[in-house]
Each structure stands twice: as structure tokens, then as C-alpha cells.
């Protein structure tokens, strides 16, 4: 029984360290892959706000437009759209 506990005390932290190290290495290597973070993203989440446990609002910037969407378990619903440069709101949907 003592031998088992000794092996457990040695191998469990070793295994946890290997898992942590592989996660760090994966994150570091993803930055070096061509086309990873260097490419320009077309869609960017600007802001999110939680309304309830299953529903949230999100502002997404896409090709110079900000789009307000509602994200729920059923999918995404576009609520409004605005031009980033002018701030003009277009395509509002009445509730």
C-alpha cells in the first residue's frame, strides 16, 4: 500500500505538469502557424452582454458595419445594424 501511495504522489504531479506543459506549448505553437493570428479577421466580436442564462446580446463588427445580434440556444437573430464610420443605424427590426 505504501509503494502505491509513493508512486501516486510522484506520478500524479508529473502527469499534471505534462498536461499543463503541452497546453502551453500548443498555445505557443498556434501563434507561429502561418495564417493563424497573422491573417486579418473579417468578423470581430466587439462587445457581449448576458441577458439571462440562455440569452446574450453581441455586437459584431463585419466589413465596417456593427451588427447587433441576439444569441440564444435557438441560434442568432439580427436585431440592428450600424455603419461604424458614420454611426448611421440601418435595418432595425421591430420587436
What's the arrangement of strands in the largest beta sheet?
A: 1-2-3-4-5
- How many domain units? 2
Q: How would a crystallographer describe the biggest sheet?
A: 5 strands, antiparallel
Written as H for each helix and E for each strand, in order along the chain, the element string is HEEEEE
Number of helices: 1
In round numbers, the mean pLDDT is 84
Strand content: 35-45%
In terms of structural class, how would the helical and strand content be classed?
Answer: alpha+beta
Radius of gyration: 23 Å
Identify the overall geometry. Answer: elongated
Poorly predicted tracts of residues: none
Number of strands: 5
Question: What would you note in describing this structure?
Answer:
It comes from Qipengyuania algicida. This is Flagellar biogenesis protein. With 95 residues, the chain is α+β, with helices and mostly antiparallel strands. It has 2 domains: 39 residues; 48 residues. 33% of the residues lie in helices and 39% in strands. It has a 5-stranded antiparallel beta sheet with strand order 1-2-3-4-5, with no helix packed on it. A hairpin with a 2-residue loop joins strand 1 and strand 2. It is elongated.
